[in-house]
Design a protein that fits this description.
The structure is a homodimer. By secondary structure, chain A is an alpha+beta fold. In chain A, about 35% of the residues lie in helices and about 30% in strands. The radius of gyration of chain A is 18 Å and the shape is globular. At the A-B interface, α3, α4 and α5 of A face α3, α4 and α5 of B.
Chain lengths: ~240, ~240
């Protein structure tokens, strides 16, 4: 499994994903599930992936190919598309096409390799937008009312986001919130695992302004995680019933 | 959906379930999903249910009928069964038989009405035991390493249990922990709803020693829930990253 989360805040966007993939319990490895495409200052598009690795890798490769194609057009390249909505459409259509092709070959009746993605971006002069692309290629968008999107194993880490994340949450607090949301997920589900990839896209910068990989045993992550555990247990002891 | 949770602690067992059921989004109602059978001081068996209401209601009714049958035997009555393991077997077999009968009538190929249960009990001279009965009637047991069992919509409420509940957790803290676990679930999933049923079975008492229904707006539950939210937000602000 995977856990990926994106926050759409007034100050910018915060993205976090794990890297654990497994095909059966004895075939576990690490793969990057966060990708970014950018023309710094002009446009940034970050993509988080969850689900069938063969589908998500092929999708990202095809998106990359389309960007590099000498005949790239606003219809095919996510770096040329006129709007972020069009970017989400290109990603959704590519995801679906990849999946559908294998599905038809295997005759799996539309059941092959579901995968989902979070697409977050901004182009110069536009607003920040964040989409959740479903396995069928359709999508929904984050809004003020729902300032975060999750893919993969999302339930364990949702309560803390529900309580903490608001559009006016700062980028620093946003990073803390997604890391603690991930921490709850890591503790409850073995199929989500370190290292973690974190990215921040500050508003109107149109580039990934901060990027960090948390390796297993990362001192900062461990300190935050332990402080949170301790704070939870101490709060638990104090509240009334 | 449903959320039900049981803790197996050194001091006793703590059980909590919601009462929301729905058959489609416009057919929502409240049904008790916690049942107890007891000969006070001799034996207590508490059952939490999740899943298809027609299956769980019929299962509980059949267990009740078997208990009241003038020809009840240790093979059929959960109040006469020689061990708690046998109680779990009777519950599992009854659950499966009810489901299988409808499934065969509908020819749904084993897919009809999945339901699961938590069975918790003690008989005089025996130890407390707690089982999770799967939809197929097989079951697993809570142990020192895993001192809680959950049924239904269990993921949102698991992180807090993972962090707080140990076998030596007190009954008072156990009650607080299941209520906060439920609180996280209620906030994240609309299909789980008040009122809540709480029961405590103190060790070696062989009866339900404490029982309480939390109606919507219950002042104690709200106070605890609000104090927890406040503590979480305040802790969140204080921990480092």
């Amino acid at each position: 499994m995977t856990y990926g989360v994106g926050l759409l805040l007034n100050e910018g966007m915060v993205l976090l994903s794990d890297t654990r993939t497994n095909a059966g319990i004895d075939h576990i490895s690490s793969y990057r599930k966060m990708f970014s495409f950018e023309v710094p200052g002009e446009r940034v598009v970050a993509i988080l992936t969850a689900g069938s690795l063969s589908v998500t890798q092929a999708t990202i490769a095809k998106l990359q190919e389309a960007v590099e194609d000498p005949e790239a057009s606003p219809e095919t390249s996510i770096l040329l598309a006129p709007t972020l909505l069009k970017v989400a459409e290109i990603v959704g259509a590519t995801l679906w096409a990849v999946r559908d092709a294998v599905d038809q070959r295997l005759r799996t009746g539309g059941q092959f390799g579901p995968a989902s993605m979070i697409v977050a971006g901004q182009r110069k002069g536009g607003v920040m937008r964040m989409f959740l692309i479903y396995p069928e290629g359709n999508f929904i968008e984050a809004t003020e009312d729902t300032p975060f999107l999750q893919i993969g194993e999302h339930k364990y880490g949702k309560p803390i986001l529900d309580r903490i994340v608001r559009p006016d949450t700062s980028l620093a607090d946003g990073q803390k919130a997604v890391l603690l949301s991930m921490d709850s997920t890591l503790r409850s589900n073995l199929s989500v695992g370190m290292p973690l990839d974190l990215a921040v896209i500050a508003r109107d910068e149109c580039r990934v302004t901060q990027q960090r990989r948390f390796e297993p045993g990362d001192a900062d992550f461990r300190r935050t995680s332990e402080a949170w555990s301790k704070a939870l247990r101490s709060s638990f002891g104090k509240i009334p019933l």
